[in-house]
Amino acid sequence: GPERILAAAKEHEWIKYVMKIVVNDWMKALFVLVMWPAIPLFFLMESIHQAVRMMLSKCGVIEAPEGTCFFTRFSSICWDQLAAWDWASVLPKSLTAGICYFVLQVGASLGTTIFLSWLAEAIKSWPLVAICGILFAVGLTMFLIPVVPGLPIYLVAGIVVVQRCKADDIPFIYGVSLASALCWVIKLSSNVVLMKFVGDPYADNVQIKMMVGTHTPTMRAAAIVLTTPGFTTPKVAVLVGGPDWPTAVICSMLKVPVCSMLIGISPVLFLIIPVVLAASYTLESGLAQKKGNEDLAAMNSKISTIMMVASGVGQLGSMVVAGMYLQAVKREHEDEFQEERDEDRDVLEAVQEEERDSQVYLQKTAWGLMPCWLKSLLFIGSWAICAMMHIVLAYVTTPFRDFQLTDSICDPEGLRCNPLNIVLFAGWIGIILLGFASLCQAACSIWCRCAAKRELSDSPDSEELLSESDTE
Prior knowledge:
Low-confidence stretches: 461-472
Distance between the termini: 59 Å
Number of helices: 21
Largest sheet: none
Mean pLDDT: 83
Number of strands: 0
Strand content: under 5%
């Protein structure tokens, strides 16, 4: 029956893994971040529902309803579950998630688009060699910034290089090939730079190894995949499907040879080409629209969309394939991964020490120990970050002007040479809410650190631990 199916599902490895993700505090924080307005509305409607049922039961129309005087049985269960949440963990995490969303969605994405649009307009009249040189330098620099995605770099190369080639009477296909090759070289060069100048200096750093998780079964499986000699499908999937910055640094930590890494990541060219084509056809669509050829503009726009979808499907597919191969390696080497390696001993000791400190931190910063002013501040801050989130999502109002890579920053009907003009009135409201939520997050962080530090300084065991660490 259904009970046996549910019991069997709970014992399945993937089901347990998914459930562990679903019920952790980060998922609860994301739920609060998006659904805060709906939570009180839900309980209000359930209260009205229960009141109506109580009245009908007194009139003899229905039997006495289950639940409490205010809530139905279902809403009572929901209320008890919410009350059991660790709000001292959920609310700060919701603030962090909202701030990260704004930084990535607005700061990194929109800010990068404006900068690259300005760059494209500034260098479009330069010689082709100079354009390639400046794009290589800018692209390499931006690849070294973890929060900046590679997609805008591919797009601006597809626009500027192809546009310059067209002005120099170079055929379209050659322009696309040159732009794709330039982006490919930028991608490979950035991985080498990250490996040699970021990964190698910190390859033996315990804190970095702990952050990467070199002792975990997943990373040990990745080490086996990435250190396999030759051009293998699992290696290509992991290198191409992984994010730019962490993948290169992890390769260095796992002592993957540079040549092996370059060979494995080289098929990323097949994901770059559709993006460059999408940018090129977007440019062609804009030019056709200016000439009044609406049919050609619509066709080029459709081709651009298809190319972007193709690139996205390829990137997602490589991530899925990488996950499948890593899971297969973990199953094959399950017994081996359960054994502790000598090179992981210092990392495991650091993890245990961090867990002890984390337990002290959680005990001294529990919800029941927080002062009322801090609890109120966290709730108000979470409401503010939720409001900012819904403003930025732009389904009620428009917070920012629509701005594409093909637009001009000095358009008199657009930004008028001032990047701040991209922010509309609703956007400024969102930024103010973001600032207030950031202050709430900072206040919570300062209080929690002071509370945990007082416990560590007052505890004799902690003093012994600290003195031992100082002696070492």
